[in-house]
Design a protein that fits this description.
The protein is an alpha/beta fold. It is built from 14 helices and 22 strands. Strand 5, helix 5 and strand 6 form a beta-alpha-beta unit. It starts with a strand and ends in a 10-residue tail after the last strand. The site of iron/sulfur cluster has 10 residues, from helix 7.
């Protein structure tokens, strides 16, 4: 079989990781990736359910595909990801153009499901939670990623049940992959040329496999010579334990950007959200990390206008943002999700929600711009990832994940280069390598 697959990915980094792993799998039954969906024999939509009208967006997208393929042979249409899990067989009933629906913990079955469909034309939905089989299968087919920076899922699912969130329902209970399975994947990535590993989990710092914790994993992965940088995301404040904080004391490869979603600066709202920690506890984590290394910066996620958020609560969020000086953060207006406790709560008016979001974003953007500006005329370490699209310069990232563009060369890709920052804007840094001959690379 020589077929072409077009994969469209929505949502978080874990969906990106999953899409790559799905491709590693379907390659084995003869699929090659295409970037041009009109060429595809198989159209796979890896969906996200976290906010807004996620479900409707999927049907809308299918409508578009239908139109494009009106005068062509219909592609095999597969829906994967969190909407697939949440909607399961409903999708097959509502939209006959969809052929297969496969939830996030059934990807180990994808080849058999496709082959079976091609043979018997039987539409099917696979949405069992079976993280063990999924990761056993994926670790056998090897992660083929050879980019400079690669995701590596170590944990999936969530037992925290924040009142606003669909993840416990779409990704199932918390599961941590076996320690050695993760290390093998890290070694394989290093062997393939990967230089930065970003450990992933919906609750990555809740990782616990036979008493091995995230801290143990980071310490082991940093021992791989080829790996120059290690990151992890997304963490929950409740699981920010001292063993993990202590890794920052001695680690040279763990990057000084801590993404630690807080959602709100108000204890009252945190309680309404069922976040299981207070602002004081969050500040303690912040102080401990800053004491270890004052250069550590924080980024976060915020939910604005959560039901019950009053002006004073919102002010607490603004105060917290100013106190911590978060960089690179995400903020969203609360979106009621089907099946969650907060689904039925009374919403704050759209006008107030928008005003609050704008205020928060202005401050967050100011922080980001100020942080980038403070780097002008300084020399920073950049891990080079690729040439720019026009091939005249190179693109990499600072230790804080900020994109950096400078006058490097192709042979810099995969190296850590010292770059002097000349200009900046909110999202990027622009620099120059001053003296190529004296450049000492890692
Ligand atoms: N596990 C992470 C944590 O505990 O913060 C978050 C993972 S969730 C995939 C990513 C972000 O989506 C959350 O931090 C939250 O800000 C946002 N989010 C989740 N549900 C939401 C909702 N119903 N409305 C708006 N934003 C939401
Ligand atoms: Fe969702 Fe994160 Fe809360 Fe889990 S801890 S329910 S993933 S927001
Ligand atoms: Fe979306 Fe599922 Fe990730 S809902 S954010 S794709 S875990």
């Amino acid at each position: 079989m020589n077929q072409k697959i077009f994969i469209k990915t929505f949502g978080c980094q874990m969906n990106e990781y999953d899409s790559n792993r799905i491709y590693d799998s379907v390659k084995k039954i003869g699929y090659q990736k295409t970037e041009n969906y009109e060429d595809a024999n198989c159209y796979l939509l890896n969906t996200c359910h976290i906010r807004d009208k996620a479900k409707e967006k999927v049907y809308h997208e299918i409508g578009r595909v239908k139109k494009i393929f009106r005068s062509k042979k219909k592609p095999l249409v597969i829906i994967t990801g969190c909407v697939a899990q949440a909607e399961n067989q409903e999708m097959l009933k509502r939209e006959p153009y969809i052929d297969l629906v496969i939830g996030p913990q059934s990807y180990h079955k994808i080849n058999d499901t496709i082959s079976n469909y091609i043979e018997k034309k039987k539409k099917i939905e696979e949405t069992e939670f079976d993280a063990v089989s999924k990761f056993n299968y994926l670790s056998k087919i090897k992660n083929k990623n050879n980019k400079i920076s690669s995701f590596l899922t170590i944990q999936e699912g969530c037992d925290k049940f924040c009142h606003f969130c669909v993840v416990p329902y779409t990704r199932g209970p918390e599961y941590s992959r076996p320690f050695n399975q993760v290390l093998d994947e890290a070694k394989h990535l290093a062997y393939n040329g990967v230089k930065e590993i970003i450990l992933l989990g919906q609750n990555v710092n809740a990782y616990n496999n036979e008493d091995y914790k995230l801290s143990n994993l980071i310490i082991e992965i940093e021992k791989l010579d080829e790996i120059k940088r290690v990151r992890y995301t997304t963490s929950h404040p409740k699981d920010m334990t001292d063993d993990l904080i202590d890794v920052y004391k001695n680690s040279e490869k763990l990057m000084p950007l801590v993404h630690l979603p807080v959602q709100s600066g108000s204890n009252k709202v945190l309680k309404l959200m069922n976040r299981k920690h207070t602002i004081n506890e969050y500040l303690k984590i912040f102080d401990k990390l800053k004491n270890i290394n004052p250069d550590i910066e924080f980024s976060s996620d915020f939910i604005i206008a959560y039901p019950g958020e009053e002006e004073d609560d919102f002010k607490d969020t603004i105060d917290l943002i100013k106190r911590i000086n978060f960089i690179n953060s995400y903020s969203f207006i609360f979106s009621p999700r089907p099946g969650t406790i907060a689904e039925k709560y009374d919403l704050i008016s759209k006008k107030i929600s928008m005003e609050r979001l704008e205020k928060v974003q202005n401050i967050l953007f100011e922080n980001q711009t100020r942080m980038n500006k403070s780097l002008e005329n300084k020399t920073i370490d950049v891990l080079v990832e690729n040439l720019t699209d026009d091939k005249t310069r190179v693109f990499g990232r600072s230790e804080y994940m900020t994109p950096v563009i400078f006058n490097g060369k192709k042979s810099d890709i995969g190296k850590i280069i010292k770059v002097q920052i000349k200009k900046s804007n909110r999202n990027s840094l622009f620099g120059e390598v001053i003296n190529f001959s004296k450049q000492k690379v890692a």
